[in-house]
Specification:
This protein is an all-alpha fold. The chain folds into 3 domains: 41 residues, no CATH class; 85 residues; 147 residues, no CATH class. It is flat. It starts with 19 loop residues before the first helix and ends with a helix. Keywords: Membrane, Transmembrane, Transmembrane helix.
Length: 299
């Protein structure tokens, strides 16, 4: 009996490839076992941290719900902040006026003219007092704002929103740097390139974009990590909450950056393969033709 004459088993007895017994389980556990991540604990840990970071960056809800009492205390604190802002604006206008008076008194060679030097010194005292008042009111405003934000807490929706806004601001700064740098590098590359063919120039531009965006994303990550402690401190959390929030926020930022760079490099490799693939195929065909002619010549 040939293989074509063998009976086909009934449909109900067929074994499906996606059966849980083949995947080692069902759901997420089955997927993990099918990917054999259980045999590579380090890789599994990195994947888990990456997923945790993406969840923290995009989908994580606020662990602390803002109650009406918390919102009322926050609004009372913000009224004090607004009062401090008004006094700060008035003090800053006084400082600007004092600074303008000092600059007006600084005539030519005023340091060597006793009468003008005395006027400048007197006005500089007024300027120093105005600057000290501005600094004092700025510190008072920051303290009252921190006190108002502490009524909500770092784990509230306000804390998470401010952290995400800080990250996207840092991300935008890094992306803007990468875009501008890529534009200028591309212009210089097109003008000064010594590549004889268009394919070499395209590959050079792809490399420039990848390098600049990698640098920009790393810069944005550093911007965020260095600015994050100040943002956390403004909510006045306890030490443990501050450390946990900093860790989760850093993992989330790193996960987003890694995902972006992964998509960038994946797209670049696909683009390069689509552009250079036919050329490489033609080169291989030419090499094979040369080998055949070489062998036939000596045979």
């Amino acid at each position: 009996m040939s293989a074509y004459d063998m009976p086909i088993p009934p449909r109900g007895n067929r074994v499906s490839v996606s059966h849980p017994s083949l995947l080692g389980g069902s759901g997420a556990v089955g997927i993990i076992r099918s990917l054999r991540l259980d045999r590579h604990p380090k890789v599994a840990t990195l994947v888990a941290l990456w997923l945790l970071g993406l969840f923290s960056a995009f989908l994580s809800p606020a662990p602390v719900r803002i109650t009406p009492e918390m919102q009322a205390r926050f609004e009372e604190g913000m009224e004090l902040v607004q009062d401090a802002e008004q006094r700060l604006a008035w003090a800053y206008s006084e400082y600007v006026e004092a600074r303008a008076q000092v600059q007006a008194a600084q005539v030519w060679f005023w340091r060597f003219r006793p009468e003008h030097r005395k006027v400048v010194r007197d006005r500089q005292v007024w300027e120093a007092q105005a600057r000290a008042e501005v600094e004092r009111l700025s510190a008072e405003k920051a303290s009252k704002l921190s006190s108002a934000k502490s009524e909500l807490g770092i784990w509230s929706e306000a804390g998470l929103s401010e952290g995400r806004a800080l990250f996207w601001d840092s991300y935008g700064r890094g992306k803007l740097f990468a875009q501008r740098q890529s534009l200028w590098d591309a212009m210089y590359s097109m003008l000064l390139s010594r590549e004889p063919d268009a394919l070499g120039r395209i590959l050079n531009l792809v490399a420039i974009v990848c390098v600049n965006f990698t640098t920009g994303m790393l810069m944005s990550l550093l911007f965020f990590v260095f600015a994050l402690p100040g943002m956390i401190a403004s909510f006045r959390p306890d030490i443990l909450s501050a450390i946990v929030f900093f860790g989760l926020a850093s993992i989330g930022a790193l996960s987003v950056i890694v995902s972006f760079l992964g998509l960038l490099y994946g797209g670049s490799v696909t683009f390069v393969y689509a552009i250079a693939g036919p050329s490489v195929g033609r080169l291989d065909a030419r090499r094979r033709a040369r080998r055949i002619r070489y062998r036939s010549h000596y045979d």
